[in-house]
């Protein structure tokens, strides 16, 4: 007798036993029928019975459900024949291949990887539900790209050995473009001015790159919030966005957006008061307020007020302070008063500082930059400065900091520092280009974060048209636990600037080495001392200027005419002070950087000169992503003991690192043959407005800027004549690419005179030494 039990589909839907019952029996044998790819052992593993066991209805129902749940089978049946269990299965087909036709918007490999995540991949069991899900997801991805007319047709092709081929045929269609954006209800502002606040816009000359003419729900939400902020920051307390309509034409090519608003009336602030647990003097709260009576209401100023109070309380250890502003509106007078409630909460201290995200860098490298100590009272200002100090190391692309409360404690927090490491080592043979040096061939091995210890070591061999450099450098920024740094340098340099730069002809070969020591004198300040020995061989030529020939004669030239070679040995001491409060070394947006350096020759060296240089840089954040940078660089050099300043120690100006729009080192004094020879006095100033490259999103490695440069070089026997200053303006771009830093600028001289070497386009790829 052969008894047929429930199929897998029915058993998957009902927990009850089979519709046709049977009496329990002792199993004489077990057979599996219908399998092609699945091993019989896989089926046996799901059977709750073995030969010789007693088989019941409940066991049969359980086995069917579990086999069906594996997803390997489209149907499962159990039959009983003369005390023999017969398991009959219908296997689902396997996916032989997945192909795409008409795919241009997406990369096929990326799509296959995403399908694999949801379980649809070659060699896996085919599931029609997953196929439908994949088809809908692909359509959704096209909608996200603005291709509303995209169609996806899926074709299944049966193949031998119970396999199927899946083909997605895509008709991508055209991208739907925003043809019109309207703001209805505006009276006090021009509609075009309000539309300038939007990222979304109608097609323009740059929208092919930014894609801002393609509709995005997220972008529209951000634009509406920008519109709301615009009104609320200008006193329109009752402003409201009544509705938003987004419509698409029947051919799915054009999109129309209409925003209906009610502006309301403009309000002024009548009073600001503070209440609650005021642990600080009320005068201090008032000084922190950015919103004041008599002024037009601004939500931005109100937010800045509450944030400033929270930050100030955070500096006193109150990490979880709550500050809320309650408005009282007088609609008749169009006035609003604010009562700001202050609840500092409990004062807390830091239990632990945890470092995460570092796979190569040792914890101690980041931890030693922390000025917020474990076991000390929480101080928001110290935590913020600690984050900046870690970021200034230059080892990390991102540094984030969270201060979660300790579970079960009301007066403790942890400080969790999470970093994203960037490559700090380089082993390369390569080439670079610059508008001044032309081709630069280089080979180098360097590691700024040696074995994750924070030490740096570099060996470089660089060759350019103007010369070659071989150098070895090592720096230990924490030679002692107090932050005393020690560094060593050895170099051999050949330099002939006249081959690439507009500089009078000479040639130098320098060999030397030195020791550097740095002492921290504050959280952001450091004093540096250095001592180096140098031997330089100078070669002058018939067409060299008299200044160069005189130097050769003064120090024992190989000929009386001043044309020839001279070797000068020198012992050079240096003293410097630097202060760095920038929020980042690689991508600064706020803070200041100052540097003073004094370099001079000391006995028994043959040279007798000293050289002073001062740089001041100020970064001012503007908005969320923009920044204004002010920079000045002043240099002053003088000889002593009757000796002049060595001409190869002169200052130069002009070029991509100085006054853009003019050739490298071309500004300043010139010879009778119109060759620049530099000078002993230097002044350079730069004003630069940085903003993200459109379309780069949050990628900080791209930076674009508008700049204004000014600078000049003169000698000690001349007076500074601002009429001789050179000015330029233009657009600059920088990118920290995986292959090296890339910089270029379009500079336009504003007062170039006859004889000036103008170079409007300048670039630099890689590092030029």
Automatic annotation (TrEMBL):
<feature type="domain" description="POTRA">
    <location>
        <begin position="348"/>
        <end position="422"/>
    </location>
</feature>
<dbReference type="GO" id="GO:0051205">
    <property type="term" value="P:protein insertion into membrane"/>
</dbReference>
<comment type="subunit">
    <text>Part of the Bam complex.</text>
</comment>
<comment type="function">
    <text>Part of the outer membrane protein assembly complex, which is involved in assembly and insertion of beta-barrel proteins into the outer membrane.</text>
</comment>
<feature type="domain" description="POTRA">
    <location>
        <begin position="267"/>
        <end position="345"/>
    </location>
</feature>
<dbReference type="GO" id="GO:0043165">
    <property type="term" value="P:Gram-negative-bacterium-type cell outer membrane assembly"/>
</dbReference>
<dbReference type="InterPro" id="IPR000184">
    <property type="entry name" value="Bac_surfAg_D15"/>
</dbReference>
<dbReference type="Pfam" id="PF07244">
    <property type="entry name" value="POTRA"/>
</dbReference>
<protein>
    <recommendedName>
        <fullName>Outer membrane protein assembly factor BamA</fullName>
    </recommendedName>
</protein>
<dbReference type="InterPro" id="IPR010827">
    <property type="entry name" value="BamA/TamA_POTRA"/>
</dbReference>
<keyword id="KW-0472">Membrane</keyword>
<dbReference type="InterPro" id="IPR023707">
    <property type="entry name" value="OM_assembly_BamA"/>
</dbReference>
<keyword id="KW-0732">Signal</keyword>
<feature type="signal peptide">
    <location>
        <begin position="1"/>
        <end position="21"/>
    </location>
</feature>
<dbReference type="GO" id="GO:1990063">
    <property type="term" value="C:Bam protein complex"/>
</dbReference>
<keyword id="KW-0998">Cell outer membrane</keyword>
<keyword id="KW-1134">Transmembrane beta strand</keyword>
<dbReference type="InterPro" id="IPR039910">
    <property type="entry name" value="D15-like"/>
</dbReference>
<comment type="similarity">
    <text>Belongs to the BamA family.</text>
</comment>
<keyword id="KW-0812">Transmembrane</keyword>
<dbReference type="Pfam" id="PF01103">
    <property type="entry name" value="Omp85"/>
</dbReference>
<feature type="domain" description="POTRA">
    <location>
        <begin position="93"/>
        <end position="173"/>
    </location>
</feature>
<feature type="domain" description="POTRA">
    <location>
        <begin position="25"/>
        <end position="92"/>
    </location>
</feature>
<dbReference type="InterPro" id="IPR034746">
    <property type="entry name" value="POTRA"/>
</dbReference>
<keyword id="KW-0677">Repeat</keyword>
<feature type="domain" description="POTRA">
    <location>
        <begin position="176"/>
        <end position="264"/>
    </location>
</feature>
